[in-house]
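Quarterly update, task 2.4: flavin-adenine dinucleotide-bound model.
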Amino acid sequence: MALTPAQLQKQKKEAEELLFSGPETLGFAKALFFGHCNTSLIFPYPSLSPETKTIVDQAVAKTRKFANERIDAAAIDRDADIPRSVIDGLAGIGVLGMAAPTEFGGQGFNQQGYVQVMEVLGGHCSSTAVFVNAHHSIGIRSLLLFGTKEQQAKWLPDLISGKKLAAFALTEKEAGSDAGNVQTRATPAEDGSWILNGEKRYITNAAIAQVLTVMARTPAPTPDNPNETKITAFLVTPEMAGFEIVEGRMPKCGIQGTATGRLRFTNMRVPKENVLGKVGRGLQVALTVLNFGRTTFGASCTGAAKVCLQAAVKHAKERKQFQQPIAEFELVKKKIAFIAAHTFAMEAATMQCAAFIDRGADDYMLETAILKVFATRELRA
Ligand SMILES: Cc1cc2nc3c(=O)[nH]c(=O)nc-3n(C[C@H](O)[C@H](O)[C@H](O)COP(=O)(O)OP(=O)(O)OC[C@H]3O[C@@H](n4cnc5c(N)ncnc54)[C@H](O)[C@@H]3O)c2cc1C
């Protein structure tokens, strides 16, 4: 069914508001569409200072050791559960607060450091990497970027120490790629609190999190349209009356270990102190936070690709057919070169997105989206 001109106009207006209402300076990828190649935005290739590199290398080594000794990826996949000992261990070596400020107990890493740790986890156990991504890269990140001082002081220390876990709930039946189509409603009550009604699905950590960032539609009347609504972000905790876990662990084809859940909110009262960011600015909260999640997701895919490359090279050298290692055949070499080239591109794109964040770039929404599509598709290929 084709969209009406009015629907098309509305979608265009929403997209323009999201994509072009913010910074004056276009990001590198967006500028390409206007015929500009702003190389100054991407060169020189990002690198860490020697002092930072030493600290990051130590964290990478510690994470690799922990993963090798304590994370049984096959068992996590088989049992469809990440044991509490793994979560506690990750908290113990600082992974759950790697990019959070030290004042809250975090490690204070920049994104270029954090992605290197996420690369290790992605190469070892994709479920564990996705769990950390949901908890830290998008869960904790919402609070870091948009939380008030009070909200940060109240929630961050427990989230960083792993005492509490975080989740980020945007997706629902009518809002997947079309993130702006959230139907969960938040109605203001007389005392200033909000009453939430709606359902969320495909939410990582939904059933195990104690702090959830939830997107809901709130009234935003205009002179032209008294029924206008916008999205607002709320901090929700499972003990709120009306919070229901409909399904704690939805079955999946892969990354079985993560708890991907469905939630329902029925007349759930959320105090006004739990509004995250400004009322009506929730979509910006969501899209900004997702930039961070996509960057560390790219890192995890890069880690997995590196492991695949190592395994492919090892096998090709050891496996003999027609009295010679298959690594000597032209087409096998071509396949390995393909994996190596694409793994390199995944790593470079990840580091570039992390550097955009660290340099405080105005706009990198398209770059992180490109990274996520590219990295996940290359890994699948
Ligand atoms: C393992 C897992 C964990 C997740 N964790 C979270 C989480 O923690 N929090 C959360 O909020 N969400 C989470 N999600 C949801 C995820 O963000 C959505 O799945 C995603 O936004 C896509 O939505 P959808 O699945 O409804 O697909 P749809 O939006 O229905 O898309 C279906 C297909 O249509 C294509 N398509 C859609 N629109 C267009 C278009 N305009 N042009 C061309 N093609 C289009 C898509 O590319 C896709 O191939 C998770 C999903 C998975 C699988």
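Highlight for this quarter: The radius of gyration is 22 Å.
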